[in-house]
Amino acid sequence: MRLVIILDVMSHSLVLLTSSLLALLVACSPIVPSGAAVGTPGAGPPCPAQPLNVIAVENQYGSLALQLGGACVRVVNVISSADADPHEYQVDAVTARAYQSAHVILQNGLGYDEFSEKLVSTLSTRPVVVTFGEVVGLKEGDNPHIWYHPDYVARITAAITAAFKRARPELASYFDQQATVLDQSMADYRSLVAEIRQKYRGTPIGLTETLFVYMAEATELQILTPRRLLDALSEEGQPSVTDVAAVQTQIQQRQIRVLVYNAQTESNLTKQWQEMATRAGIPVVPVTETMVPIDDTFQGWQTRQLRALLAALGG
């Protein structure tokens, strides 16, 4: 009898299984990519049909999918770690197999998660695929951080519901009910966007890259950071000396009210700006690309960041 040793990464313990039992467990268990987070069907009555297997490349979309699908979806988030970079994600065999069993795949597009688009192109049976960049009418080269645009979020949630109804037409009314519940839970999120816009429209702020551009535009805050510099930093390029000097002057002369930075892609340069802002008495507000913590909801995550921004601006 051959034994197989498995490391339980959650408890850091070793489990011994026979090879036959291991095969049975693999056959009966969902395939989960390494490092992925899994959303189980929501609470309440069981789904009246077979639940959909849903892959959400980024966990913020997984949160929306789980809320919109309720008991009728099983969601696998490919990228959940705050340290993961979708641009550099390396696909393993387990991830590729997970795609094979998916009924619905939710991906950002716009060059942000190219590995997913490549995997989809290899599937013999094509699932329902939603590429959100296409949903909101953008093209590759545009700012890919579309989940920071409140109007785009509304179109994204509608597209997810439509995809679920396409994959399980008999559950259309159920998915519509879930969409109504999610929309109601977005009230605080929308209210904070409106409050910041009303109180601080035109207030100058600084950014460390393009992540928060859409939200800054939605709240009508004035971005003083040169756009060329934001694009260069987002693409891991080298900003010009002139643009770097402009940012330093904005901080030193307190021309900006707040500095918003991407906490997941810090560099020596952006850390230097954070330190300069702190010394100058300028509030520094961190935001993240993926949903942190991973067991939060999309609206909870965004609302918490917006409240921090509102407080930094003056309340």
Q: Any idea what the shape is?
A: globular
Q: Could you estimate the helical fraction of the residues in percent? A: 40-55%
- Radius of gyration from the alpha-carbon trace, in angstroms: 21 Å
The quaternary structure here is single chain
* Strand and helix order: EEHEEHEHEHEHHHHEHEHHEHEH
What count of structural domains? 3
CATH superfamily of the largest domain: Nitrogenase molybdenum iron protein domain
* Unreliable parts: 1-32
Strand content: 15-25%
Describe the structure.
It is a single chain. The chain has 315 residues and is α/β, with parallel strands linked by helices. The chain has 3 domains: 1-30, no CATH class; 32-185, 3-Layer(aba) Sandwich (Rossmann fold), CATH 3.40.50; 189-313, 3-Layer(aba) Sandwich (Rossmann fold). It contains 13 helices and 11 strands. The protein has helices at residues 19-28, 59-69, 93-100, 114-121, 132-135, 150-167, 172-185, 187-200, 213-218, 227-234, 241-252, 268-279, 298-313; strands at residues 3-8, 13-18, 37-39, 52-58, 73-79, 104-107, 128-131, 204-207, 222-223, 258-262, 284-287. The longest helix has 18 residues, at 150-167. The termini are far apart.
Task: Give me some keywords for this one.
single chain, 315 residues, alpha/beta, Rossmann fold, 3 domains, 5-stranded mixed β-sheet, 4-stranded parallel β-sheet, 13 helices, 11 strands, 45% helix
